[in-house]
């Protein structure tokens, strides 16, 4: 027997807007702090950009990659991370929801759990901090690397940006699942995630095989920036990869999300509270 | 004095509890060094100098910079936590010097990291990356002195940022901005010799070069003897200058302190 959903899609959407409004309100409560945090995140993210810029002013090009191509490649990382923390910050902070007992409150409400997790968080500071870096890089490079911005390319760009965000969200949700079994893995996760991201700032072909494999099949950042950028740039180093990879970003995102979601479901089914619920 | 030794010991023991993090930190440092060397290899491929002395020096620079980052890591939020939780009130009642306590606590962390992170990471790096030995024994001794001074410069700079928690309560933003400045301007990620002259001139007016760049160039033998004396003196002056600023801030912070409940 199929259960009739409690709410219509319209009601769900209206509720989502209410959640968003609440999040924005709580952010605006501490305007000065939030602006300051945004600036701090911006500065932190600019470290690697500035270093790359300084290297490229000295060396002009690396393995045939011009400076605007390098920064175009890099811009994917910032923009898709920005999308990720704007829409899926709840997945990033999920382990904290378990420790603080916030998750227990979700369990008592007549709404989908994943919906509540996603709806309850917007990290505007991080989204802006990363987003501004991304926009600066994009605006400076997107029109000088020889891309024709026709409807097809724009569509492709938007799809890879969104699905790239889903890939990153899946990585975070995967590590958060371990908190169901009370393993604390956030330090390890941050180390793996943020370093993989830093590594992906440079073209995949710069690295030896093992690192390439890791970035393609373990922490698949190659599908967040390298292959999408290659779709536009078609550098010669693409010849050593299967051409189909250019279109695999959405596929990787869907497969990863479904696998992680199944794992997460399993976690929820055997979840017992930490006892800190408010 | 004994009390401070005990604080350092305590910090050392606290850190032992996080063995898994410690091992992860070593692996992380090795991977980041490896990745950076890959990027530099890619950069130098066009210049056909990958096997030259210059390139070996660059690799050594990268290894040293990352290993120093390992041991230069401090407990950035200890003062902030104490201020926000109010437990600083109790600490101030104790017959100890609070800044001395914070310093010895960080020295404990430093010793922990030297013994359990730096030593294994250094051995692995020597085997894997074939870094150059120190230019000479004298240079190595001077490198150690300069590295200790570099640590103190960074510590005094950090202390000023930490103390700001008396006014701001949350210091994440300031700490992060400070870190960004240190990472770029101190040569932790990119040797100063690759930077444009105007930028180097600016950096020379700041304490940042004293933290990473000066010790590493001494190790590599890239700095003439007469310049070393000057560089060390400059480091010492920065330590004293920043220390005095920290003391002054500390005094006004105490006047500012408000503890709710404690």
TrEMBL record, chain A:
Keyword flag Oxidoreductase: no
Alphabetical UniProt keywords: Membrane, Transmembrane, Transmembrane helix
Domain of life of the source: Bacteria
Residues passing through the membrane, by range: 36-59, 71-90, 124-149, 155-183, 204-224, 244-264
Endoplasmic reticulum among keywords: no
Record Pfam families: ABC2_membrane_6
Listed name of the protein: ABC transporter permease
From TrEMBL, chain B:
One Pfam family cited in the UniProt record for this chain: ABC2_membrane_6
Regions that span the bilayer: 21-43, 55-74, 176-195, 202-222, 228-250
Record bears the keyword Transmembrane helix: yes
Keyword Transmembrane appears in the UniProt entry: yes
Keywords: Membrane, Transmembrane, Transmembrane helix
Protein name listed in UniProt: ABC transporter permease
Organism: Ruminiclostridium papyrosolvens C7
Organism placement in taxonomy: Bacteria, Bacillati, Bacillota, Clostridia, Eubacteriales
């Amino acid at each position: 027997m199929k259960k009739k959903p409690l709410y219509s899609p319209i009601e769900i959407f209206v509720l989502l807007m209410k959640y968003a409004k609440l999040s924005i309100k709580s952010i605006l409560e501490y305007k000065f702090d939030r602006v300051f945090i945004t600036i701090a995140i911006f500065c932190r993210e600019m470290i690697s950009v500035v270093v790359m810029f300084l290297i490229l002013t000295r060396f002009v090009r690396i393995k045939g990659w011009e400076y605007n191509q390098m920064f175009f490649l890099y811009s994917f990382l910032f923009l898709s991370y920005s999308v990720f923390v704007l829409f899926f910050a709840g997945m990033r902070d999920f382990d904290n929801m378990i420790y603080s007992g916030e998750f227990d409150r979700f369990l008592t409400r007549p709404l989908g759990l994943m919906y509540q997790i996603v709806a309850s968080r917007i990290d505007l500071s991080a989204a802006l901090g990363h987003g501004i870096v991304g926009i600066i890089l994009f605006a400076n490079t997107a029109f000088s690397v020889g891309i024709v911005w026709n409807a097809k390319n724009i569509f492709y760009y938007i799809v890879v940006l969104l699905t790239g965000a889903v890939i990153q969200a899946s990585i975070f949700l995967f590590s958060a699942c371990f908190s169901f079994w009370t393993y604390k893995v956030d330090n390890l996760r941050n180390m793996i995630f943020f370093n993989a991201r830093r590594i992906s700032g440079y073209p995949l072909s710069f690295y030896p095989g093992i690192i390439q494999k890791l970035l393609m099949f373990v922490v698949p950042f190659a599908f967040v920036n390298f292959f999408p950028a290659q779709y536009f740039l078609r550098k010669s180093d693409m010849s050593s990869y299967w051409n189909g990879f250019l279109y695999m970003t959405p596929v990787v995102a869907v497969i990863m999300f479904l696998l992680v979601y199944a794992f997460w479901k399993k976690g929820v089914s055997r979840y017992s509270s930490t006892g800190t619920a408010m | 004095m004994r009390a401070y030794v005990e604080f350092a010991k305590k910090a050392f023991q606290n850190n032992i509890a996080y063995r898994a993090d410690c091992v992860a930190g070593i692996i992380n440092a090795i991977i980041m060094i490896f990745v950076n060397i890959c990027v530099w290899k890619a950069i130098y491929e066009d210049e056909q100098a990958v096997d030259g002395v210059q390139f070996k020096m660059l690799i050594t620079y990268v290894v040293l910079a990352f290993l120093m980052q390992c041991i230069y890591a401090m407990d950035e939020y200890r003062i902030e936590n104490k201020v926000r939780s109010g437990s600083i009130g109790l600490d101030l009642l104790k017959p100890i010097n609070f800044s001395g306590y914070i310093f010895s606590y960080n020295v404990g962390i430093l010793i922990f990291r030297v013994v359990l992170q730096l030593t294994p990471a250094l051995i692995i790096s020597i085997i894997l990356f074939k870094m150059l030995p120190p230019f000479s024994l004298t240079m190595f001794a001077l490198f150690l002195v300069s590295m200790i001074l570099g640590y103190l410069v960074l510590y005094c700079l950090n202390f000023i940022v930490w103390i700001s928690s008396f006014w701001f309560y949350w210091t994440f933003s300031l700490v992060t901005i400070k870190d960004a400045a240190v990472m770029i301007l101190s040569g932790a990620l990119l040797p100063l010799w690759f930077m444009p002259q105007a930028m180097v001139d600016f950096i020379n007016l700041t304490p940042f070069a004293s933290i990473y760049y000066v010790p590493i160039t001494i190790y590599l033998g890239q700095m003439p003897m007469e310049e070393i004396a000057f560089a060390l003196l400059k480091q010492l002056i920065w330590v004293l200058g920043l220390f005095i600023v920290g003391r002054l801030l500390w005094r006004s912070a105490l006047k500012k302190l408000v503890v709710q409940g404690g």
